[in-house]
Amino acid sequence: MVAIKIKHLTKNFAGFKAVDNLSLELSENRVLGFLGPNGAGKTTSLRMLVGLSRPTGGEIEIAGEKVIFGKSTVNKFVGYLPERPSFYNWMTGREYLGFVADIFGLKDSEKRNRITELLKKVSLTAFGSKKISTYSNGMKQRLGIAQAIINNPKVLIMDEPVSALDPIGRREVLSIINNLKKQMTILLSTHILSDVDRVCDDIAILDRGKLIISSSLENLKANYASLIIEVELDQDSPDILKKISKQPWVTKAEKNNQIIKIWIKDREVMSKNIALNFFAKEDVGVLNFGLKLPEVEDLFVSILEGQK
Amino acid sequence: MRIFLTLFIKESTEIFRSKKLLILCIVFGFVAISSPIIAKIIPDIFKNINTNGIIFNIPDPTWKDAIDQFVKNTSQFGLIVVLFMFAGAIADEKSKKTLEMLLTKPISRTAYIFSKFFAGAFYISTIFSLSGVVFYSYANSLFGDFDLVNFILLMLFLLIFLLTIFAITLFFSTISNSQIKAAGLAFVISIVFTSVLGYIKAISDYSPSYIISNYKDLMTTGNLDQFLPSLYTSLALIIALVTLSISLFSKQEIER
User: Hey, which end of chain A has fewer CB within 10 Å, N or C?
Assistant: First the structure.
């Protein structure tokens, strides 16, 4: 079943189109990574989905109900976490969750159990009675996730959930998101591409307000990924990059100290050992050699470059 | 109704914990206690000033002088405290981004504005009424008995005046993105509505501040008729401002 249906969504700001005719569908219990460079229109789209911003045109349906700007009925199915969640700092974490539970009409005993369970889930049990003003960014982000899922939403929407966090905070939040997979449909925007590999099933790439591509990550990797060879040399060789780039079987090459990434034109380069023969001919020692699995970052760059 | 109550309780807790309640208590408590004292000691102060032979003939103070002080202080301190305590009620939630967390929950924007208005109005009314009790008891002990019913009527009219200021403040808090902007706009418009209009003869009877300049008639005669136009204007203004706040807020996009 379709959890989110977006049809011809458009948002104009004084003279420019922040979102341009975006159409997208997301099936139930999938995790969609919403990607795009800064200013691509990701946050604007998400804010229209949760009713904070009014679309200039188009339609949005969540869990079968139309999103109407200014009406909050769809919000009962939705959990939302903005990029930097802000709370009432005079409340404790437990009080804030209690307040949100009251909005959703949870009964007293159910409310108590749910809050205890959520504080445990986001590793804030020991801090539940502390004022939110004393929380770190990571703790606020985790509390943000807890308040977003207190109603067991059908759809969880997160805007850059880990971008403001240090590596430990990021790992904690990603692990929470991973645990939520299959329980609800998740739509998350991010520009940290390695995170998409870790948690997403599908990706949609937006650039200058337009949807460039929307597909499962698996399909995308199969269809769009360039073949990349990664080679580790035994010592740094200053001229080697220039020589590789001139080879007819090479699309592009990058060098980082002794590691060289080579985008090759077809699989024959591997099967006929063309690349290996080249290094042998150049008399360069090779420590490691192999096809690199395509990463989202490579897909993202090649798709955006293809657009240009 | 459940959502309104949840938001009302949250507002009440915030008013209490952010010390707004304490500040309201201090200001209105000060007005209640200082007004009779000032009325009582001003003649003594003048008597004790060395004026090189000039003699001031000041009559003994009465409860009327205490009421003078009370009305004057309420209209000045009351206006300022209501304005600055509540100018951030909605504007602050926008600038601090707590509003976007709230509006993505199933709450109606009408319930949100109502909760802000009724919570603020409840605490202003309660604290101001208590200050009236304190003032009445203290002024009575210093100057002797005066008419309680007329004083209650005066308190009622003054309260409507304060609630008009509060409705103006809340309206500007709704349409502004910062507390300072909301306070500045509300201050200017409050002065226009409560003072400037009072100087235009043709409409002065309808000014929300009519009670401030004509309270003596009410205290001595208890006759309400002359105060009704200003009462109706104030009530209409409060209802119109709250309605307009709801209408504008419902169409407002919440900026990042």
Answer: C
